[in-house]
Automatic annotation (TrEMBL):
Source organism of this protein record: Candidatus Sulfurimonas baltica
EC number(s) on file: 1.16.3.2
Domain Ferritin-like diiron intervals: 1-145
The protein's name in its UniProt record: Ferritin
Family label: Belongs to the ferritin family. Prokaryotic subfamily.
Length: 168
């Protein structure tokens, strides 16, 4: 059993993961509507991955007897003017999520909650990967500028495979 403060913060994080999933669904929609079908597919997989992250936290909370409240999921703003802007927004979001997990780890240390600290480490590692993969795409998009190279990158993004390592 974890204490109330940690349960409440994890519940907030649960909502952030569901928001992430919703945000990526929005990005996928924007890409599909704009003709970037490879990126739409990439973001759709990201949408599914974020839902799995949410359920990973949900299952941990259930196992720890923490109170789960399903909070309102905010409407994402998906009015992008370019694919680069869309991926930049994704990176900004992931940096915010990394900060959020770091704060949860700080809380776990403060409370000597070793179980939560250990559990959160999976997310800390995952955030490194998420920021790196989006950062790499942004670098490529910056390199090609507004040229036809965007469509090559978009086509490459359609090759992304589902992540089978998330687990419960
Ligand atoms: Fe689950 Fe991309 O943060």
């Amino acid at each position: 059993m974890i204490n109330k403060k940690m349960a409440s913060e994890l519940n907030t994080q649960l909502n952030k993961e569901f928001y992430s999933s919703y945000l990526y669904l929005g990005m996928s929609t924007w890409c599909a509507n704009t003709g970037y079908n490879g990126s739409a597919s990439w973001f759709m997989l990201q949408h599914e991955e974020e839902r799995m992250h949410a359920f990973k936290i949900y299952n941990y909370m259930l196992n720890q007897g923490a109170k789960i409240e399903l909070l309102t999921i905010e409407q994402p703003d998906i009015n992008y003017t370019s694919l680069l802007e869309c991926f930049k927004d994704s990176l900004k979001h992931e940096q915010m999520m990394t900060h959020s997990f770091n704060e949860l780890c700080d809380l776990a240390i403060k409370q000597k909650d070793h179980a939560s600290y250990g559990y959160l480490q999976w997310f800390v590692q995952e955030q490194i990967e998420e920021e790196a993969s989006v950062g790499e795409i942004i670098s490529k998009l910056k390199l090609v500028g507004d040229g036809n190279g965007i469509f090559m990158i978009d086509s490459q993004l359609s090759q992304r495979k589902p992540d089978t390592q998330v687990g419960a």
